Automatic annotation (TrEMBL), chains A, B:
Gene3D superfamilies registered for this protein in UniProt: Phosphoribosylformylglycinamidine synthase subunit PurS
Function field: Part of the phosphoribosylformylglycinamidine synthase complex involved in the purines biosynthetic pathway. Catalyzes the ATP-dependent conversion of formylglycinamide ribonucleotide (FGAR) and glutamine to yield formylglycinamidine ribonucleotide (FGAM) and glutamate. The FGAM synthase complex is composed of three subunits. PurQ produces an ammonia molecule by converting glutamine to glutamate. PurL transfers the ammonia molecule to FGAR to form FGAM in an ATP-dependent manner.
Protein keywords: ATP-binding, Cytoplasm, Ligase, Nucleotide-binding, Purine biosynthesis
Catalyzed reaction equations: N(2)-formyl-N(1)-(5-phospho-beta-D-ribosyl)glycinamide + L-glutamine + ATP + H2O = 2-formamido-N(1)-(5-O-phospho-beta-D-ribosyl)acetamidine + L-glutamate + ADP + phosphate + H(+)
Gene Ontology, cellular component aspect: cytoplasm
Gene this protein is translated from: purS
Compartments where located: Cytoplasm
Protein name per the record: Phosphoribosylformylglycinamidine synthase subunit PurS
Protein source organism: Jiella flava
InterPro entries linked to this entry: PurS (IPR003850), PurS-like_sf (IPR036604)
Length: 82, 82
């Protein structure tokens, strides 16, 4: 079993209304000094088997086809070597 | 300016219907060998100033009060030292 974490974030320049809403909510809560917030998604994935190269290929296919919209989002895959 | 990343994930045992939907969509796409998927949230935050201890306190307050539901979610804060 290979564990991996995929992080999907909006590309620079893409408007992030959720992040803006969080910034304004923080202001209302009295939490100051926060410059900017941008929200993304994280996926913790377990891949069967022990083939790290195959797992990387599967994870990339998952991101390209399902998890990330590569027009407006970047993704990063981290394979956990513990 | 201090950059930090907050990762909010569901606690073990909490049902994750979004993750289950992704697992079934992967099957439909013909991507096999994926054992489990669990979805979480990531927040990229910029904190004003250079006070790392103060930034850590601000980030913890953000998580406790707004970003994470600590009944069902865990959060991790990583301060970027680049």
């Amino acid at each position: 079993m290979i564990k991996a974490r995929i992080i999907v974030t909006l590309k620079t320049g893409v408007l992030d209304p959720q992040g803006k809403a969080i910034e304004s909510a923080l202001g209302n809560l009295g939490i100051d000094g926060v410059g900017s917030v941008r929200q993304g998604k994280v996926f913790d994935v377990e891949i069967e088997g022990e083939d790290a190269a195959g797992a990387k290929a599967t994870l990339d296919a998952m991101c390209e086809q399902l998890l990330a919209n590569t027009v407006i989002e970047n993704y990063a895959v981290e394979i956990d070597n513990r």
